[in-house]
Amino acid sequence: MGKIVSISNQKGGVGKTTTAINLASNLVDLGKKVLLLDIDPQGNSGSGLGLEVQSLTKTTYEVMIGELSAREAIQKTFINNLDIIPSNINLSGLEVDFLGIEKKEFKLKDALASIKESYDYILIDCPPSLGVLTINALCASQSVMITLQTEYFALEGLSQLMRIISLVQSQWNPSLALEGVLLTMYDKRTNLANQVAEDVRNYFKEKVYETVIPRNIKLSEAPSFGKPINYYDPDGVGAKSYKSLAEEILGRA
Predict the structure, then answer these.
(1) Domain AAA: where (predicted)?
(2) Quick one: how far is CA 99 from the chain centroid?
């Protein structure tokens, strides 16, 4: 049965989608079958894998409102054993659609129940918010990975995310665990990045991955070519970092 991991942080631009795409691709390289589930209305996980997401009619939105089963919305990518349920701007209306609906927190969990045995990992790319979409993801997941950029405001708002995780644990999903904390956009040449990394490691202890993701132009370019970094720049530092992360996650497991 597949392990469902949400990749979350309510701050935007901290590497959630970059991590979702590249971790998924590297887990596949290591022999795993992976589903990438996009619950961000921006749809960047799909476009980062070469899909024209705004024209799609089989997306996370149709799954969440019950028009399609999760299996019906699955799309193959150009990478064997990496599937995706993409999203697009339609998903931004879900908050309104769910007004007054009972047990709305469990819509995603219920939808994934029939397919989770088909994958080794299901990675959920969460939006930069703590609304109904992120809560659905956390209720459906066994664990949550937090991406944290090594910059001045890195820890700002993190306490709010931890409160939401605690809320989900207490009310809906008591088995939800912290998968790990990933430091992103790391520039070892700066004192600030090193200080932030030290502060995060002091707070989260062994939950912080040894692997850090560097600030790297190739990682930024790869989505515009519709490719994960291990296909766009396979010998670069970004590709090596995400390979190391995938190996570390499997080693911990």
Answers:
(1) 3-177
(2) 25
Confidence at residue 1, expressed as pLDDT on a 0 to 100 scale: 67
Top-confidence residue, 25 or 129: 25
Q: Give me the amino acid identity at 103.
A: K
Residue 167: HSE in the Cβ half-sphere, 13 Å Cα cutoff: 13
Sign of CA dihedral 131, 134, 136, 142: negative
For helices 237-252 and 16-29, the axis angle rounded to 10 degrees is 70
Closest to 12 (Cα-Cα) out of 54, 42, 50 = 42
The predicted structure's pLDDT at residue 117:
95
pTM for the whole structure: 0.95
Q: What average pLDDT does range 80-90 have in this prediction? A: 97
Q: For the chain, what percent of residues have pLDDT higher than 70?
A: 100
CB count, 10 Å around CB of 66? 10
Q: Determine which helix (DSSP H) or strand (DSSP E) holds 214, and give its type and residue range.
A: strand 208-214
